[in-house]
Amino acid sequence: MPEPDRSALALAALLAGAALTHFAAPRPYDAIVPRRLPGSPRLWTYASGLAELTVAAAVAHPRSRRVGSLAAAGLFAAVFPANVKMAMDWRHRPPVQRAIAYGRLPLQAPLIWWALRVASRHKPIR
Fold first, then answer.
1. d(C-alpha 63, C-alpha 41), whole Å
2. Is residue 122 pLDDT above 60, yes or no?
C-alpha cells in the first residue's frame, strides 16, 4: 500500500472543509454567485459544494488522486469569477472586509499550483 501523501490529504481536507461550509452556511456563497449564471444562487452554492466534496474524495483516494488533483485545479480556476464578484461588491466596505475580498483573488494561484503539484507527483493507475 502506498505511503500517505500529506500534501494530497491536506488538499483533500481543505476541499472537504470548504465544501461543508457551502451546506452549513450557504448565504455568503449565494451572495457571490455571478448574476449571469442561470438558476438560483443557492443551486450554484450547493452544486459547487458538491463539486468540492467530490473532488476532495477523488484527491484523498490514491487511485483517483491524479484526476482529482487536476479537477481541483480546474475547480479553483472556475470559482475565480465569484471571487472577482466578491471583490467588486465589497470595494466600499470597511478596510478589513475589503482586504479579505481582495486577498481571495491572488490566493487562487497558489491553490491551483498546489493542486497541479499533487497531480504531477501521481502517475495514473491502470
1. 33
2. yes
Q: Which three cell numbers stand for residue 83?
A: 471571487
Rounded to an integer, what distance in angstroms lies between the CA atom of residue 91 and that of residue 85?
A: 10
Tell me the CB-side half-sphere exposure of residue 72, using CA atoms within 13 A: 36
Pull the grid cell for residue 48: 459547487
First and final C-alpha spacing in the chain: 15
Domain positions in the chain are 6-120
- Residue 1: its pLDDT value, please? 40
The distance from CA 76 to its chain's CA centroid, rounded to whole angstroms, is 5
Q: What band does 124 get if pLDDT is binned at 50, 70 and 90?
A: low
Q: CB of 85 within 8 A of CB of 36?
A: no
The pLDDT, as a whole number, for residue 123 is 73
